[in-house]
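Limitations
The structure tokens in this dataset are predictions for the assembled complex, not deposited experimental models. Users should treat interface geometry with appropriate caution, especially where small molecules or nucleic acid strands are included. An illustrative entry is reproduced here so readers can see what is and is not provided.
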Amino acid sequence: AQTVTQSQPEMSVQEAETVTLSCTYDTSENNYYLFWYKQPPSRQMILVIRQEAYKQQNATENRFSVNFQKAAKSFSLKISDSQLGDTAMYFCAFISPPQGAQKLVFGQGTRLTINP
Amino acid sequence: DSGVTQTPKHLITATGQRVTLRCSPRSGDLSVYWYQQSLDQGLQFLIQYYNGEERAKGNILERFSAQQFPDLHSELNLSSLELGDSALYFCASSSDSYGYTFGSGTRLTVV
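Predicted assembly:
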């Protein structure tokens, strides 16, 4: 079975600091996609960033970047220059195979608080 | 606006009742997924439909059922409701790659 593990239930940093959220996953597949979703207090699920497993280059979206280590099955999210609006639950998610729209498997989430 | 529309946004009902949650996927997306999120929990996959047919099933109770109609909108039916069914129910849609787009969810409260 494919599983996603987020080992940090909660994290807290000061505004403008950099924070890294951890995620590991378990799969025997070679082709898959990884995602980070953000869930602010409004409870809306918002896609932050995605990574295709066949791409060696780490994905980047403005202040958000990932460190994808395929051999280690690790997919961490780095938030630079953190802002108060980054306060949210962050979920790591996995899907395989990407074609045929299989279900997303989510981790349990990391609650991130950005303090002023 | 994500393009995925869920109605209603909030629903309060009594135990033993039946409710229907509705989802309209993003234009062009053939797949619809339903997820349940209980308080401070992760998202649990319930069921997937692809172009009108059931594609995958997760931890969906027998009291729950779903369908996808020819216009691709989907409905999740919850019956014989229990207090423990109180949760946020998300619908998401996708094309064949690049992940999901989520609706804003339906918050169900069973009293």
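Some entries come with short summary sentences. For this one: The CA atoms of residues 3 and 26 of chain A lie 5 Å apart.
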